[in-house]
Every structure is written in structure tokens, then in C-alpha cells.
Give the backbone structure.
Amino acid sequence: MATAYFHKTSKAEHLSNAEVLALAHDLVALFLEYLRCEDPGSDILDVSALPAGKSSLQNAFRLVIATESREDSRMRLMEAGCKLARFQDHVGSRIRISPSPMETACHDGGIATPLLAERVDMILTEAADEGIRLKNLLLASADMAARRFDGPTTAPRFHEGGLVLGHTRIDPAAARINSSFSEW
């Protein structure tokens, strides 16, 4: 993940593949730095707290994971990318998810109003659903990288006699006969 890419950003509509990949790495690094500083834990935060657009960060994680050759790095990137589900639209101030001590709990069960409880439940459900969706999306990227990097190495598809795997042996005499008919 800490790979440095030399890139000179050109016009956005004409970026090379290397420039797009470098920008994706930059976005992922920016989000990882944000996580180190803010540590959202299990809290729910507003999307506006993100250092870049949420969909841009999701796409950056997908691209970086799909092009990462090391399996352990892919798994760590997936774990970090799934934390994007903790950022939801219209949350407002941070919603802390932690048990409260009995002496500070409200007498009405800890929730000020049923409307607030319903809103928090809705936000938590959306975050859980998005977490599942995001995990599947990033897992597909990791699977793509695994097929590319972790699979068997590409070996020549030829047998010792020069035949391509999957083809039957051609009799050289029959091949000469067939070629002589094409000359007529």
C-alpha cells in the first residue's frame, strides 16, 4: 500500500491508467490517515466528515484492492474499506455506539423520544446493509486480484512433441495429403 507512484496529473478526462491508479492510491492513503486520526470505531458519522467523496473512496478501494498482489495487504485494505459503511448521509453529529452506565441512563429507557429511536434504528440498519454490500463489492475485487496474482503461474501450453494442450495429434502424412488437395 505504501508504494509511491510518479504521476503528473493531466486533464481529468484524459488520465492514463497509471494516473488513475496513482490517484486511487492517494485517496486510499488519505482515508487511512483519516482513520488513524479520527478512529471512528463503531460510531456512525456523517458523510461530510470524509476527506473525499464516499463513492470516490469506494471506487478507489476497489481499484487498489484489485491491483494489489499481496493477499495480506488486500485483506487489510478490505477491512479498512468496509469502514466506509460507518459514514451515512444526514447523520449530523457523531452517533456514538457504546453502552451507557446505569447512573447516567435516562429514566425513560435511554432514548429521549420514539422518533429519535426510530431515526437511529434506521441509520444503523442502513449502515449494516451498506456494510454487507461494501464487503461483497470489495471481496469481488480481492477475488479478481487473487485470480490474477495468486493463481498458478502461466506455463507453456505445449507438450513435449510440440502439440498444444487440448488438441489431438495430427498425422504429418495426412497433413501433406490435405495440403496437396488445396493446390488443385
